[in-house]
Write a structure and sequence with these properties.
This protein is an alpha/beta fold. Helices cover about 40% and strands about 15% of the residues. Strands 1, 4, 5, 6, 9 and 12 form a six-stranded parallel β-sheet that branches. A two-stranded parallel sheet has the order 2-3. Helix 3 (about 45-60) runs parallel beside helix 5 and helix 6 (about 125-135) packs antiparallel against helix 7.
Length: about 350
């Protein structure tokens, strides 16, 4: 990417690869932490980086738009300027405490995709619980596929390897099995997952404050933020429709945009695209990387997003990624929804 930037290659190709614009995905926005073990750091950017990124987007002549406008531009002829739409997943507390002051200062529209169990205080941020126990323990023992497994977690390298393995394993489990496994671990290693989840999440008062701003859109990300591909069809449909209904009731406004929990190719399928349409969502975003094409070439219910890894601080690299030269075109076909 350094070569693409300094050679100017990305500028030459952008008119072919850049599409109508991009949807940027963020999750947590908070000051940098110096702890050696931070397996979820890739989910984070600092308020300072967010501020720099917004300045850069304006300097690069992106139109910063709402998700409604992004959807409109996805089905019309391309504009002179490409668009960028800012999205935030998970409903984390620092969106209102650390991100909102930056976004409000710039008067930038953005959308928060909300799993409604979390502001209700019953969501389970299992990834935070897993991080907390591995950070503290020298060894983790649990049963996987009826066999006892032992993981050494004494060094930072061992901790990262254990977290990656267990997080990937937990992601494959149906919600009931995942909940049982993480509760068993939390009990065994004295981790208060409920407290961690509540501390990390916005409550309904926080969300009402955001919703009062006309530049803020609240979207849905189901109730419990479970990977839809791990659910039976009826359960997946219930998660989507109930998440929408709860948010609309609590905030007294229509919720018309959706984010697939986790959002990668393993976490949702074509049937969930249809469910989103049937539930009345105008759009659904994934975490599959790519740009949004104009003239209806990108499925509004399978929109790609560019996620920025919080361990990187280079705006040059972001500029190259936003040009689209790193990604194949994301277009729906008869056999492949993205």
């Amino acid at each position: 990417m350094e070569l693409a930037y300094f050679s100017g290659y990305f500028r030459l190709k952008q008119h072919e690869t850049g599409g109508a614009g991009v949807i940027l995905r963020f999750e947590r926005v908070r000051p940098r932490d110096s702890r050696p073990f931070q397996p979820n750091q890739w989910r984070e950017v600092t308020p300072q980086f967010l501020d720099r990124a917004i300045h850069a987007l304006k300097r690069w002549n992106f139109d910063l738009v709402t998700m409604d406008e992004a959807c409109r531009r996805a089905v019309t002829l391309p504009k002179a300027n490409r668009f960028a739409s800012l999205t935030f997943d998970g409903g984390c507390k620092d969106v209102v405490t650390d991100a909102y002051p930056v976004l409000s200062k710039h008067r930038v529209p953005f959308i928060v995709y909300l799993p409604t169990a979390f502001p209700d205080g019953i969501g389970e941020a299992w990834w935070l619980a897993l991080e907390a126990m591995i950070a503290r323990e020298e060894r983790i023992v649990l049963v996987i596929d009826r066999k006892e497994r032992r993981f050494a977690t004494g060094s930072a390298q061992d901790k990262h390897a254990t977290f990656e393995f267990l997080a990937n394993w937990l992601r494959t489990l149906p919600p009931q099995d995942l909940s049982f496994a993480i509760h068993d671990l939390c009990t065994r290693y004295s981790v208060d997952m409920a407290a961690l989840s509540r501390e990390d999440s916005m409550n309904w008062d926080d969300l009402a404050r955001l919703a009062a701003d006309p530049l803020v859109t609240i979207g849905s990300a189901t109730v419990n933020y479970a990977a839809l591909s791990n659910l039976k069809a009826a359960d997946a449909q219930r998660e989507m429709t109930m998440g929408k209904a709860v948010a609309e009731t609590a905030l007294r406004r229509a919720v018309t945009h959706f984010a697939y929990p986790f959002g990668d190719r393993q976490s949702w399928r074509r049937e969930h695209v249809v469910m989103g349409q049937e539930a009345g969502f105008a759009s659904a975003v994934s975490t599959i990387p790519g740009v949004v094409q104009p003239k209806g070439f990108t499925n509004l219910h399978a929109l790609p997003r560019i996620a920025w890894d919080g361990r990187q601080r280079s705006l040059r690299m972001m500029r190259v990624m936003l040009s689209g030269i790193m990604f194949p075109a994301v277009r729906p076909t008869r056999d492949n929804w993205v």
